[in-house]
From TrEMBL:
Protein name: tRNA pseudouridine synthase A
Top EC category: isomerase
Keyword set, alphabetical order: Isomerase, tRNA processing
Subunit structure: Homodimer.
The EC number(s) this enzyme carries: 5.4.99.12
Source organism of the structure: Paenibacillus cellulosilyticus
Pfam families per UniProt: PseudoU_synth_1
Keyword field contains tRNA processing: yes
Catalytic activity from the UniProt record: uridine(38/39/40) in tRNA = pseudouridine(38/39/40) in tRNA
The keyword Ion transport is assigned to this record: no
Active site positions: 53 (nucleophile)
GO molecular function, one term: RNA binding
Gene: truA
Gene Ontology biological process terms in this record: tRNA pseudouridine synthesis
Gene3D superfamilies: Pseudouridine synthase I, catalytic domain, C-terminal subdomain, Pseudouridine synthase I, catalytic domain, N-terminal subdomain
Lineage: Bacteria, Bacillati, Bacillota, Bacilli, Bacillales
Length: 261
């Protein structure tokens, strides 16, 4: 009898070509599927909650797969981790109801973009935060981000290479947290388009620099034109923070922080 196993995985995406398998290889999905094969002998495809691009990290990526293995759910994480490289770690695993689908069942996703405001970059966080040594107006950035909340057409905030049939998405919440010299931009939404959070981050940095006004954001959304917004921020500052699911499809609110506490 097939079982539906769900896992929460964190990874440092610095050396990988993104989450989803591709012909060139070297993806997080490839690494995870290879580990499962060595453990169970099965060649299977995992389903991720979403893609992350090359160089992007994850604190709480979620994936599921169907297996014939009888390994108890409490042993999956330890068994998989002994077969993974040090920069990929499964935090938790459990058996979910049959209908659970890591991508389709997800209701909310949160991404974090981190900015290092030190005069000189911190050698220890250089892979996880974009270095921006010039001053940023954080209050203006907060005001600008608030204009993104709600249901909008985010064509202006996605790559021209996007293949999605439409660009309407809902942003539930935005916030900025200051942690010493670090600035963390959080965006929570129903789903995200290709490069969407990185374009939001790049645009917010232009607001912080005074190149744009917070009141420019509604016009950008209305324009539905990628050239109306700011640059695409570098990938290494971005992290998939957490994914939320309805309780009837998963046994709990899935958060990496819950997993490690």
């Amino acid at each position: 009898m097939s079982r539906n196993i769900v896992m929460v995985v964190s990874y440092d995406g610095t050396t990988y070509s993104g989450f989803q398998s591709q012909p060139s290889g070297n993806t997080i999905q490839d690494i995870l599927e290879a580990a499962i094969k060595t453990l169970t002998g099965e060649e299977l495809r995992i389903i991720g909650s979403g893609r992350t691009d090359a160089g992007v990290h994850a604190r709480g990526q979620v994936f599921n797969f169907h297996t014939e293995s009888r390994i108890p759910q409490e042993r999956w994480a330890l068994a998989i981790n002994t077969r993974l490289p040090d920069d990929v770690v499964v935090l938790e695993a459990w058996e979910a109801p049959e209908p659970f689908h890591a991508r389709h069942s997800a209701k909310r996703k949160t991404y974090r973009y981190s900015i290092d405001r030190r005069k000189f970059p911190d050698v220890f966080s250089r892979h996880y935060a974009f270095h921006h040594p010039t001053p940023l107006n954080v209050d203006a950035m907060r005001e600008a981000m608030s204009h993104l909340v709600g249901e909008h057409d985010f064509t202006s905030f996605t790559s021209i290479q996007s293949t999605q049939p439409h660009h309407v998405r809902t942003i539930f919440e935005t916030r900025i947290e200051e942690e010493g010299n670090m600035l963390h931009l959080f965006v929570t939404g129903s789903g995200f388009l290709y490069n969407m959070v990185r374009i939001i981050a790049g645009t917010m940095m232009w607001v912080g620099e005074g190149k744009l006004s917070p009141n420019d954001i509604p016009a950008m959304l209305e324009a539905k034109d990628r050239t109306s917004t700011g640059p695409t921020a570098m990938a290494h500052g971005l992290m998939l923070w957490e994914v939320d699911y309805p309780p009837e499809e998963s046994r709990l609110h899935i958060s990496a922080q819950d997993s490690v506490n």
